[in-house]
Amino acid sequence: KKVIFSGIQPTGVFTLGNYLGAVKNWGPLQDEYDCTYSVVDLHAITVKQDPAKLRRQTLDCYALLIACGIDPQKSLLFIQSHNPAHSQLAWVLSCFTQFGDLGRMTQFKEKSQKHPDDINAGLFTYPVLMAADILAYGTDLVPVGQDQKQHLELARGIANRFNGRFGETFVVPEPYIPKTAAKIMSLTEPEKKMSKSDPNPNGFISILDEPDVILRKFKKAVTDSEGVVCRREGKAGINNLMSIYSAITGKDFDEIEREFAGKGYGAFKMAVGETVSDELAPIREAFARLSKDREYLEECYTKGAEKACRATAKMLRKVYKKVGFIGL
Ligand code: TYM
Asked: Is the distance from the beta carbon of residue 183 to the nearest atom of ligand 1 less than 6 Å?
């Protein structure tokens, strides 16, 4: 069975972008693959977090993943900081990562521009920790959105460099990026990625938004003045709405064009809003149930932690031995 690994940061309720670009695909992979999914709290502290809030968001994020169809019986679902191997491997890998390569990461450049007063070393070495997450489990496939592609390339480079020096150690992972929803854009500024850190809440759909809020946000979505639902360069807003609609309904772009031929943007936006609202309703209900059941969540993440530590112990030992550490 092929091994799948992916992660999500617990930096607030995740968005429709996170869901369509990544999390929606995680559940269906469980039956065919050996899946590991992580709430990456170590990554979250590369930007300033309030400790109490981080704790709550981590637990909520864990519950949300279950609500999105990740079954802790089928998949290994755990909280990153519960497995120390991630940090341990990250240190070793950082010694096989070039400063220049990290400096070229666009996400680092963006984030350091956004927080010029806190360009900490963790923000810089973030992709090394991500490489450790992936490589520790012998991962074949990493289901992520477009924005993580460069980080994954770096992880492949690190794996190759290490393997070249010490012989086959790591599996070199492949990205698994969805075709239509790889990059969901902001509803208010469709040239920008949809992001939960957007100060304008109309720009993003939170996966726990109520139906009326979802409909209102889609109604306000920025489009263009042409009034024709079709996919073309220069129609960023409509292209984005078509991607969202396609990712949920499975309809291709030609089908969508035909469906809305002769209808205005109003009708199209309404249809997209309703589709999204219907998709998210069961998730919201499941989350409401799960988030009250702390005991169940605690049981799940405790088991997940044990399984995660067991899953990576051998790899860490192998790496320590290869680089020349004395084993105990
Ligand atoms: P994070 O928490 O920013 O996002 C989680 C996942 O959501 C995807 N995503 C999007 N997809 C489409 N459209 C969007 N607007 C959009 N916004 C976010 C991301 O690509 C991601 O797949 N570094 C990672 C977390 C991570 C990780 C890992 C992922 C840590 N270790 C190991 C894979 C493997 C991150 O910050 O994701």
From this structure: yes
